[in-house]
TrEMBL record:
Chain residue ranges for the region called Disordered: 1-23, 129-151
A Pfam family reported for this protein in Swiss-Prot or TrEMBL: HIRAN
Phylogenetic lineage: unclassified sequences, metagenomes, ecological metagenomes
Keywords (A to Z) from UniProt: Hydrolase, Metal-binding
Ranges for domain HIRAN: 48-103
Organism of this sequence: bioreactor metagenome
GO molecular function: hydrolase activity, acting on acid anhydrides, in phosphorus-containing anhydrides; nucleic acid binding; zinc ion binding
Composition bias, Basic and acidic residues: 129-138
Gene3D superfamilies, sorted: 3.30.70.2330
Biased amino acid composition, Basic residues: 139-151
Regions crossing the membrane: none
The protein, known as: HIRAN domain-containing protein
Length: 151
C-alpha cells in the first residue's frame, strides 16, 4: 500500500544518466523541510541567488563535529553545500538512503530571514511503479490469486 503523494508534475527528470529502472518508477513526495545551517554562511547570498525554485538538490551524509550523529547535508548539482536537514527530519532521509532509495530534494521556497535565509525544500524519492497484470483481453486481473481460478 502506498500512502505517499505521487508528484506527476515533476516525475520527468531530464538527467542524462537515467536508466531503465527510473523509467518505470514514480516520484513520491515525502516531506517539506526547512534547512538549518544557512546563517552566517560565507557566500550564501550568491549561492541562493543562483539556485532557482524546483532546482534539484542532493543529500550527502557528513560527520558532525560536535555530535555523535551524522548530518544530512544538502548540496547543489555543482556540489556546493547549502545547509543541512534538521535532526528531527533527517531520520527518514537517513533510513531511506541506507535502504538504497534514490532520495533527492527540490527547492520550494527561499527568503531572507535575519542574517541568513529561510530555505524550504521538498524531499522526494523514487519508487518502482506497481503494475497489475492484464489478461489477453486487456482486463486487469484481480489481485491476490494472480488471476488464477481455483476449484
Amino acid at each position: 500500500m502506498c500512502d505517499f503523494f505521487v508528484d506527476e508534475e515533476n516525475e520527468e527528470d531530464n538527467d542524462e544518466d537515467n536508466d531503465e529502472d527510473e523509467e518505470e518508477s514514480e516520484v513520491i513526495y515525502l516531506s517539506g523541510v526547512a534547512l538549518s545551517g544557512t546563517v552566517n554562511k560565507k557566500g550564501i547570498t550568491e549561492l541562493i541567488s543562483r539556485i532557482k525554485i524546483f532546482d534539484k538538490l542532493f543529500f550527502f551524509k557528513e560527520h558532525a563535529e560536535n555530535s555523535e550523529k551524522d548530518l544530512i547535508a544538502v548540496r547543489t548539482e555543482e556540489g556546493e553545500r547549502i545547509g543541512h536537514v534538521p535532526e528531527h527530519k533527517a531520520l527518514l532521509i537517513d533510513m531511506m538512503m541506507d535502504a538504497g532509495k534514490r532520495v533527492y530534494g527540490r527547492l520550494e521556497k527561499k527568503e531572507p530571514m535575519g542574517r541568513g535565509f529561510k530555505i524550504v525544500i521538498g524531499v522526494y524519492a523514487r519508487e518502482k511503479k506497481c503494475r497489475r497484470e492484464q489478461d489477453s483481453k486487456g482486463n486487469r486481473k484481480k489481485a491476490g490469486n494472480n488471476g488464477r481460478k481455483y476449484k
